[in-house]
Amino acid sequence: MKIDLSGRTAVITGASRGLGESMAKALSEAGAAVGLVARDVKRLESVRDAIAERGGTAAVFVGDVTREQDVAAVAHAVTERFGHPQILINNAGANLRKPLVDFSLEEFRGVVDSSLISTFLMCRAFVPGMKGTGYGRVINMASTMGHVSLPGRSPYSSAKAALLGLTRSLALEVAAEGITVNSISPGPFGTDMNTAIRDNPEANAQFLASLPVGRWGKLEEIGALACYLCSELSGFMTGSDLVIDGGWTAR
């Protein structure tokens, strides 16, 4: 069944690369107009141009989504360009790997803010515009690190676990409005965040041996899942987290 998002507008944070870029392209191919949000204007423009070359509609909105004033400016600009969007994908996030005792408070807060506070600010800015329309879709990008963890991931795991709680609570608040709120917990995908492992043959082989499917996730697999969650077909699913990790957390 082909998913048709024609007439919908989606806003995606962290859209300049990786999973955000993949989801932006997938939603565009399904017919949605896409607002691309990140700090790197050149990379955003590259994604926008790639979407335009395929006949899609996309616009660039530059801002730091951990900053309240930037989110307000982005929300105003998006509404001026597209009207109130019906889809919000909170994909922004950063990671810093080292032992907990080696983190400064600023570093720890920075990692948490990049995923958790950015999601709060974006939801607060965009969810009100979905109310009264009978339709809305929010996807929060969590992680398998919110369910399990590894050494050196304390702020990242903390933020992603908190996102699961935020997702459930917001889902209950807006369910009667026809707005669904779900999260996706990706496992190991071939993004820049995992370059250190993928580029080290020994580490890569050891890691893949721990994955039941024996491979890294493909970016288009996240795009397809996002399209489903943004469609009418997912209307009975809310407050849920979808783990897509090649069976890693099933062990």
Give the DSSP E fraction (strand runs of 2 or more residues).
15-25%
Apparent shape: globular
Q: What's the number of extended β-strand segments?
A: 7
Helix segment count? Answer: 8
Taking strands numbered 1, 2, ... along the chain, how are they ordered across the largest sheet? 3-2-1-4-5-6-7
Query: What order do the SSEs take from the amino end to the carboxyl end, as H and E?
Result: EHEHEHEHEHEHHHE
How much is the average pLDDT? 95
Q: Mind summarizing the main beta sheet?
A: 7 strands, parallel
Please bin the fraction of helical residues: 40-55%
Task: Supply the helix-strand structural class.
Answer: alpha/beta
Termini distance? 32 Å
Tell me what you see in this structure.
It is globular and about 50 Å long. The protein is an alpha/beta fold and 251 residues long. Helix 3 packs parallel to helix 4 (105-130). The chain has eight helices and seven strands; from the N terminus they run E-H-E-H-E-H-E-H-E-H-E-H-H-H-E. The relative contact order is 0.15. The chain has a seven-stranded parallel beta sheet, with helices on both faces.
Task: Spell out the key features of this protein.
45% helix, 7-stranded parallel sheet, single chain, 7 strands, globular, alpha/beta, 251 residues, 8 helices
Topology, element by element:
Layout: E1 9-13, H1 18-29, E2 33-38, H2 41-53, E3 58-62, H3 68-82, E4 87-90, H4 105-130, E5 136-141, H5 154-174, E6 179-186, H6 195-198, H7 201-209, H8 219-230, E7 241-244
Helix pairs in contact: 1-8, 3-4, 4-5
